[in-house]
Amino acid sequence: MTVTPAEQRPILSADDVDLSDRYFWQRPMAEREKAFELLRSLDRPRFYREIETSFAPPGPGYYALVKHADILEVSRNPEIFCSGDGGATNIPDMPAEFAEYFGSMINMDDPRHARLRRIVSRSFTPRMIKRFEADVEAAATKIVDDLLETGSGCDFVTEVAARLPLKIICDMMGIPERYYRFVFDRSNIILGGFDPEYVGDVSQLAGRLLNAGMELQQLVQDLAAHRAENPTDDLISSLVTANIDGEKLTMQELGSFFILLVVAGNETTRNAISHGMRLLTLHPDQRALWLSDIEGHTPRAVKEIVRLASPVNYMRRKVTRDHVMNGHLYRKGEKVVLYYWSANRDAAVFDNPYAFDITRDPNPHVGFGGPGPHFCLGAHLARREISVMFRELLRRVPQLEVGEPELLFSSFINGVKRMTAHF
Ligand code: HEM
Asked: One GO molecular function term (predicted)?
């Protein structure tokens, strides 16, 4: 049974931490930080019962991996900790009817994962991202033009942070501008977590998710049918037209890949930009430092923003054979959840882990996942977008500040729904 926020006990020891109580994810950030610090101080990972959902009976439970070392080892050993058996993006096993829309490569293992990644990764190399550089810069300039035109401020999330990733991913795929809002609304539902603003009543969640998936798949498949006959230089055309190795995506693969791109590429970067702006508002010394040499500080500052923002809180894996890791025996069939947000605050790896330090170096954060076959495909693009957005903001609105963020109610995405900006 879940408790309501009013009944929540203060967190005094690791026994008070229940990651499967959905209201845990509504606690203030400082309490969540304390909770994960307590979990990291234990010798062994905690085992939790599974979150109840309307679309799957509760599964057997999961170990919460909160230490940086555990997350590296799991990510490096995909044949022992797999993504494919029930999915990596969800703690309960994904029901069969979800696979049509959400069964993309992030939820697969090799060799199927490797085949899909090979086909799509040609479009995500630094060289290809460079091709979109001018578009990213033009889009950021226009966003800041519009911000300045408001005269005094706006909602930072919808008017600034959300616009750049949405436009770029839609441009790459060749999605016309009139569909931006449609795509934005559906990705909000898919990553809406427990938040009633996006997912309504939790009992209706499965239907709403499937509907959003179906609508996005329909949009991309309609465009793809057209591109197969009239190819252009966009991503959809290259994915549905056989390339040099004769490999191409089927329509179902294209649909679920598009859904993955839209949700993975939009919300994550949006939230990194929003958290970054909040960090700059709270730390004027770091803003002044960044302003003193914008080009020079940007690469490390962006890394530090992704570390502290950790826009994706976790991924899940399933154990394929009995295995001892860092002193603990994991048995075949057990689940482990990799809490990146926690690993990015692990004092065993990061000095002064709660400090926002734009010169931090080294900064081996796991915000884009650990080292392994699923490491974020869009990491180059995301870094580029965040860099260009902040460069434009710092140059043209150096005094911009944001208010208290209104956070998304979710255990999976560290989302910001709204946050007023003023200058
Ligand atoms: C700050 C922004 C971003 C963050 C924090 C982020 C984070 C992540 C994480 C944690 C994973 C899973 C890694 C794993 O399972 O080991 C992932 C995978 C992925 N991301 Fe990102 N991501 C971001 C931006 C993007 C963008 C812009 C795109 C695409 C346009 C993208 C596309 C993907 C894809 C396709 C995968 C699956 C890769 C695979 O399974 O091989 N991401 N990302």
From this structure: steroid hydroxylase activity
According to the model, what pLDDT value does residue 5 have?
57
CA of 261 to the centre of ligand 1 (A): 8
Considering only CA atoms, which of 368, 310, 351 is closest in space to residue 29? Answer: 310
Nearest CA, atom 12, ligand 1: 369
Has residue 106 been placed in a domain?
yes
Q: Is 273 in the pocket of ligand 1 (CB under 6 A)?
A: no
309 CA: nearest ligand 1 atom: 5
Which of 166, 376, 412, when mutated, tests ligand 1's pocket best, judged by the most ligand atoms within 8 Å of its CB?
376
* Interatomic CA distance for residues 267 and 225, integer angstroms: 27
Residue nearest to atom 35 of ligand 1 (CA): 377
Residue 82: what pLDDT? 98
| CA of 376 relative to ligand 1 center, distance in Å | 3
H/E segment holding residue 339: strand 335-339
Domain count, the chain: 1
| Residue 241 vs residues 42, 143, 256: alpha-carbon distances, Å | 52, 34, 17
Q: Is 313 in the pocket of ligand 1 (CB under 6 A)?
A: no
Output the domain CATH number for residue 308: 1.10.630.10
Residue closest by Cα to atom 7 of ligand 1? 368
pLDDT value at residue 3 = 47
Cβ atoms < 10 Å from Cβ of 5: 10
Q: Three-state SS string across 220-275, please? A: HHHHHHHHHHCCCCCHHHHHHCCCCCCCCCCHHHHHHHHHHHHHHHHHHHHHHHHH
| Beta partners for residue 407, in sequence order | 416
Q: Residue whose CA is closest, atom 40 of ligand 1? A: 106
179 domain residue, yes or no: yes
Distance in Å, CA 368 to ligand 1 centroid: 6
What is the model's pLDDT at position 332? 97
10-residue mean pLDDT profile of the chain (423 residues): values are 61 95 94 98 96 79 98 98 94 88 93 90 78 91 96 93 94 90 91 85 84 93 88 81 72 89 90 98 98 98 98 98 96 98 98 98 98 96 96 97 96 96 95
Query: Looking at the domain assignment, is residue 155 inside a domain?
Result: yes
Expressed as residue numbers, the domain containing 93 is: 80-313+381-422
Residue nearest to atom 21 of ligand 1 (CA): 376
* Domain presence at residue 269: yes
